Design the sequence.
């Protein structure tokens, strides 16, 4: 992509009211645009980051026999009445509920447990039909009292939710651990070091669940943990304070702020009983279906990456999710020889399957181009100018020093990662 054609361009200043760092940098870098509080458009650069994350998740889930589908966002009240959640005060606080022109009641999805169980009820008959693990990437709606923190907390956002159905509690827990491991691989691939944290069940279940938390000083969650063992709980369920003895090993309890990027819920038979979904076992006897759900906030994950990976100049994207791998900057583009060389490098990198954003603007200063590159945060900045001769000036976004490389050397670096 040539930067002259990219929509939109960077902004010098953050929009008024943008308090969180991810909001400021993502808007200034041209990744997102705010429609209203809690509602954002993913612009072309932002959508490229999103698709990188989506593909990583898809690859890891498909490896463990999960199947992708897509479910509606508009839900009839009747299905939610079966579980009692339509009238649950905690649900009514966050679910958008309304009537259509025929006076029928509907809600906008903030989750899909009821819908998945409704579908399972149509197709699951025998123990041979289980387990089932299905997921989708879809928009969710949540009537947040105060949408804040940029795309970390929105009224409308994209989520990956996965649901698993099983013949027994034992099988549910077995797959629960499989998906937990898949999640840890996903977060590692996108560049995050996360901890699995014990948490409350919220509007999903009365039992404890697990969150995937990324530690950061700018986090909106509070986590209590022990450095000597794997004890770790969020503030909702932890009964104590910093400096207490760990209830598991006696070590010292410490505290950190963090951002939740995923969660998993063992739901038992609550939903299958409510919707009358069962299966026949080997003896032909009717049995309960065990159920669990697993979520990753996709747009929240983008915001989290920015909160963690940045400096005072802009974003520093991990290689795996960067919108492009190379930010090619042409200087002295009034010179025909430099233009020809820049175009050649641009095409050869693309031919090698390397994604390139080429700043081909004429009449823009080197300082302005470098500032845009730092703000956008693509992993490698490559400069061509009269001074570079037959070499390329290469700088990793995360480094301070530049190096001069031949094109072949650069390609070797980029293709051997």
Sequence:
């Amino acid at each position: 992509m040539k930067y002259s054609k990219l929509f939109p361009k960077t902004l010098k200043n953050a929009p008024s009211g943008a308090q969180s760092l991810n909001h400021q940098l993502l808007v200034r870098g041209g990744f997102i645009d705010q429609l209203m509080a809690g509602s954002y458009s993913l612009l072309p650069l932002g959508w490229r980051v999103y698709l990188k994350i989506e593909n990583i998740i898809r690859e890891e889930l498909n490896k463990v026999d999960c199947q992708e589908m897509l479910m509606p966002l508009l839900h009839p009240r009747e299905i939610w009445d079966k579980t009692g959640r339509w009238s649950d005060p905690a649900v009514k606080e966050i679910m958008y509920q309304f009537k259509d022109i025929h006076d029928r009641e509907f809600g906008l999805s903030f989750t899909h447990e009821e819908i998945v169980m409704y579908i399972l009820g149509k197709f699951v008959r025998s123990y041979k039909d289980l387990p089932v693990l299905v997921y989708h990437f879809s928009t969710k709606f949540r009537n947040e009292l105060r949408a804040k923190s940029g795309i970390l907390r929105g009224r409308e956002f994209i989520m990956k939710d996965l649901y698993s159905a099983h013949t027994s509690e034992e099988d549910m827990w077995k797959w629960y651990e499989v998906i937990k491991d898949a999640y840890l691989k996903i977060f590692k691939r996108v560049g995050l070091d996360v901890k699995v944290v014990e948490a409350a069940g919220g509007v999903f279940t009365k039992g404890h669940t697990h969150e995937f938390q990324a530690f950061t000083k700018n986090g909106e969650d509070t986590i209590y943990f022990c450095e000597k063992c794997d004890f770790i709980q969020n503030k909702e369920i932890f009964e104590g304070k910093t400096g207490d003895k760990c209830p598991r090993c006696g070590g010292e309890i410490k505290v950190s702020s963090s951002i939740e990027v995923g969660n998993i819920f063992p739901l038992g038979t609550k939903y299958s009983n409510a919707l009358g979904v069962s299966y026949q076992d080997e003896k032909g006897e009717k049995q309960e279906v065990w159920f669990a759900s697993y979520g990753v906030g996709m747009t929240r994950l983008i915001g989290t990456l920015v909160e963690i990976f940045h400096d005072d100049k802009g974003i520093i994207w991990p290689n795996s999710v960067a919108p492009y791998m190379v930010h090619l900057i042409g200087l002295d583009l009034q010179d025909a020889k430099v233009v020809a060389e820049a175009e050649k490098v641009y095409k050869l990198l693309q031919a090698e399957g390397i994604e390139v954003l080429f700043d081909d603007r004429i009449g823009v200063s080197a300082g302005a181009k470098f500032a845009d590159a730092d703000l956008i945060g693509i992993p490698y900045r490559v400069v061509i100018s009269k001074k570079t001769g037959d070499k390329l000036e290469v700088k990793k976004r995360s480094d301070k020093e530049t190096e001069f490389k031949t094109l072949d050397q650069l390609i070797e670096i980029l293709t051997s990662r």
Summary: Residues 169-189 form the longest helix (21 residues). The chain has a mean pLDDT of 96.
